[in-house]
Design a protein that fits this description.
Oligomer: single chain
Distance between the termini: 96 Å
Organism: Penicillium subrubescens
Structural class: mainly alpha
Shape: elongated
Largest sheet: none
Radius of gyration: 27 Å
Strand content: under 5%
Protein name: Reverse transcriptase zinc-binding domain-containing protein
Number of strands: 0
Length: 191
């Protein structure tokens, strides 16, 4: 009994370190690494969501900080059109005016500010071409994230299976790019 008391006293002394068995060291190291990885991912997501820069793109696509394969099925010109729509840095007067390259942010139709949303959904100049787009998109017409291959915030919940199961609809994205190309609104003037 006295020996047990002596061992217990030694074990609880502040300066005493307990050397865990080798299997426990491996488990502790793996747990610490897993915790550090998850903490880093949570920190990156938090910084991404709180950042002022990139708000337009963040509203469009919650998977933005992940790997992108969405552009792989397009040639360079069409991938550029898609990237401009996804970032909001398209050659529309709303953006051009903001960076000092256009005197007005109004669309040529005169109704409102020319933006990606206005171009895809409201501008009366493109009603004829838009019919094909509406048919291709179907009931999700009007959802900018869906149409541009963005991951909606609602899918980014805590259910890991839902997050992994989500996939963009490449047929819809191709229809949007085809619409933009058909209008010739965003084509560079080649000299």
């Amino acid at each position: 009994m006295e020996r047990a008391h002596s061992l217990a006293h030694d074990a609880t002394t502040e300066s005493r370190e307990i050397d865990p068995p080798p299997w426990a060291k491996i488990q502790l190291r793996a747990s610490a690494l897993r915790w550090a990885r998850l903490s880093a991912v949570d920190h990156r997501r938090s910084v991404f969501r709180q950042s002022v820069a990139g708000q337009y793109a963040r509203q469009l696509d919650w998977a933005l900080q992940g790997p992108h394969r969405i552009y792989d099925c397009f040639d360079r010109e069409k991938a550029s059109v898609l990237a401009e729509h996804r970032t909001g840095h398209a050659r529309f007067n709303g953006y051009l005016h903001r960076i000092g390259q256009s005197e007005s942010d109004l669309c040529a139709c005169g109704v409102e500010r020319e933006t990606v949303q206005h171009f895809l959904f409201q501008c009366t100049q493109w009603n004829e071409q838009r019919r094909v787009l509406i048919d291709a998109v179907g009931s999700n017409y009007g959802s900018l994230p869906y149409m541009l291959g963005g991951k909606p915030e609602s899918v980014d919940g805590t259910n890991e299976q839902n997050r992994r199961a989500w996939k963009h609809d490449i047929k819809v994205i191709k229809a949007v790019v085809a619409f933009a190309v058909e209008t010739k609104r965003l084509m560079y003037e080649r000299h």
